[in-house]
Design goal:
about 350 residues; alpha/beta; eight-stranded mixed sheet; elongated
Length: about 350
């Protein structure tokens, strides 16, 4: 019988109605009672870390969750984390980097509707998470709407639909269909070795989405604020303005002054290639780090994690440009799913 730990952190799944609207109100044991019909064949323990709306989930909480998983991993065959959906993809990416080489499956899930609601997606998502946690496939994953997504590839793409999450430019790690849990044998972030906890995250980070007319002075203000790293969502396949308002020059000065600047695309799918256009090539010459088809969630959390681990800028650059957990590369054909 597989031993599974369910860690509760709050979110919509654990929410109840109050005078101020939905807010987390169900404890971990309440959730476990409500899914008792799903746990046959498993020995499921529960632990409650937080009771938070995921909008309030911060890097400090990522560190605590990572510590909890790390400390308990040897006692369980898998771990399920109940989490709110709004920042679930950020937490999944953060845990992926903090718990590299984790020896067991760690599966985050949540729901679009409270588990108290009879039409909720919560029960089905918990079922998927439990079975993935018992799969023996080590790594960090997201389970939602009968799909299992690698933690560094998940993104919330819908606000109301039960089909809220997608795997961006990457095959699903597993699916649930009439055959049960069908695991993609090509997907396994584990490369051998033992997990080493690396749960320090730098919060002196800024996410900048470009828009026409943006002032280059923003980088002077960010420097004055003590920002150490910026992730820039550029236009299309990779474009930043250098005419009239020379953002490229401003970024070059920021990099020369010691700021780490990573740049990707605002487009959800297919990523960037700054070598194609002049507006992209100029920024590469400034020393920025191109993130390719990393999701915004993965790029931001990886930058926070890298700056939290390393003081040497070249080491940060090297880590950011290296695919550690499948977060870079491998664009797939979404018509075939391959």
């Amino acid at each position: 019988m597989k031993r599974i730990l369910m860690i509760s952190t709050g979110g919509t799944l654990a929410s109840s109605h109050s005078d101020n609207g939905l807010s987390p109100g169900l404890h971990g044991h309440d959730i476990l009672d409500r899914i008792s019909g799903l746990t046959g064949g498993f020995q499921v323990d529960q632990e409650e870390l937080f009771m938070l709306d995921s909008s309030n989930m911060q890097p400090e909480e990522w560190s605590q969750i990572a510590q909890c998983v790390y400390d308990r991993r040897s006692r369980y065959d898998g771990i399920v984390i109940i989490h709110g959906t709004d920042t679930l993809a950020y937490t999944a990416s953060a845990l992926s980097f903090a718990l590299q080489q984790i020896e067991i499956p760690v599966v985050l899930t949540g729901s679009q509707v409270s588990i108290e609601n009879p039409i909720a997606d919560a029960t089905e998502n918990c079922r998927a998470a439990l079975h993935m946690a018992a799969s023996g496939c080590p790594g960090v994953y997201v389970a939602f709407n009968r799909k299992i997504i690698m933690g560094t590839r998940a993104s919330k793409v819908r606000t109301r639909s039960f089909d809220a999450f997608e795997s961006i430019d990457y095959p699903y790690a597993a699916r649930i269909n009439s055959s049960g849990l069908v695991v993609n044998p090509a997907i396994s972030p584990h490369r051998g070795g033992s997990c080493i906890l690396q749960n320090r995250f730098c919060t002196d980070i800024f996410l900048l989405k470009l828009f026409p007319g943006i002032s280059p002075d923003i980088f002077d203000h960010l420097k004055a604020m003590g920002i150490r790293g910026v992730y820039v969502e550029a236009f299309g396949i990779g474009g930043l303005p250098f005419w009239k308002r020379n953002l490229t020059e401003a970024i070059g000065r920021a990099v020369a002054d010691g700021m780490t600047v990573a740049v990707g695309s605002q487009c959800l799918y297919e990523g960037s290639d700054f070598s194609v256009y002049e507006v992209g090539r100029q920024v590469l010459d400034c020393g920025v780090i191109e993130t390719g088809n990393m999701t915004t969630e993965a790029a931001v959390t990886k930058l926070m994690w890298a700056l939290g681990q390393y003081s040497d800028r070249e080491q940060v650059r090297k880590v950011m440009k290296t695919s550690l957990l499948g977060e870079i590369g491998n664009t797939v054909n979404w018509n075939t799913g391959k």
